[in-house]
Amino acid sequence: FLTLAPFVSVVLNMQFDHPDCYRDREDMKKAYDAFVANTCVSGCVVCYRPLLQELAINGRRAVTFGYSRDCDVYPEELDFRGGKYSFYLCRCGKASSRIEMNIEGKHNVLNALAACAAAGECGISDADCAAALSRFSGVKGRYEHLGRAASGARLVYDYAHHPTEIEAAVNTARQTCRGKIVVIFEPHTFSRTRALMKDFVDALSLAD
């Protein structure tokens, strides 16, 4: 990602990952700072509000997103119904379009806010963002419904290869499914499994 020179860069999180490339989180953070440094000076950095104090913005304009009102972009009247979330999109204290999410999982609310923040910087209206998100049905491999087993159990596939992603997938299942949740986990790399073993155990323990 350090070969990119974006006009608008987006940083969703900086949780330690890819231990085959980075020694530790501090080493990984240097790569994020370099990514931000590659961002066009006349552009901006869209970032999750808690990360603002950690990132080296270096004079670039920052646009923050998150759940609190001290963010530039945040949700109001967050509602959960039918396994999906909806909310009013707020920019700098002013509510605009109602976002009706078409994908499951509360973590996708933050993803939607980040997308709206970046789109707004590119001149796309909140109404157009709302319309696009209402049609967006997700991507292959992310909480993808595959059908049902002979027992009637729902089968869902998720390319969750980091503990935080596993936690998000299991929590989404808790919200949207009835009965026991069974997880079959396939480790992605031995280096990540070894480095984050405790976190993997904690995340997988959320399932039945």
Plain-language structure description:
It is a single chain. With 208 residues, the chain is α/β, with parallel strands linked by helices. Helices cover 32% and strands 25% of the residues. The strands form 3 sheets. The chain has a 3-stranded parallel β-sheet, with helices on both faces. A 3-stranded antiparallel β-sheet has the order 4-5-6. A hairpin with a 5-residue loop joins strand 7 and strand 8. The termini are far apart.
Q: Would you kindly provide a brief summary of this structure?
A:
The chain has six helices and eight strands. It is α/β, with parallel strands linked by helices and 208 residues long. The longest helix is centred in the middle third of the chain and has 15 residues, at 107-121.
Descriptive tags:
208 residues; alpha/beta; 3-stranded parallel beta sheet; 3-stranded antiparallel beta sheet; 8 strands; 25% strand; globular
**Total count of strands:** 8
Which strand order spans the largest sheet, edge to edge or round the barrel?
1-2-3
Rg of Cα set:
18 Å
Terminal CA distance = 37 Å
Instruction: Output the helix-strand order.
Output: EHEEEEEHHEEHHH
Report the major sheet: 3 strands, parallel
Low-confidence segments, ≥5 residues, pLDDT <50? none
Q: Please, what is the average pLDDT? A: 95
- Percent of residues in helices comes to 25-40%
- Beta-strand fraction estimate: 15-25%
Total helical segments = 6
Which class best fits the helix and strand makeup?
alpha/beta
Shape: globular
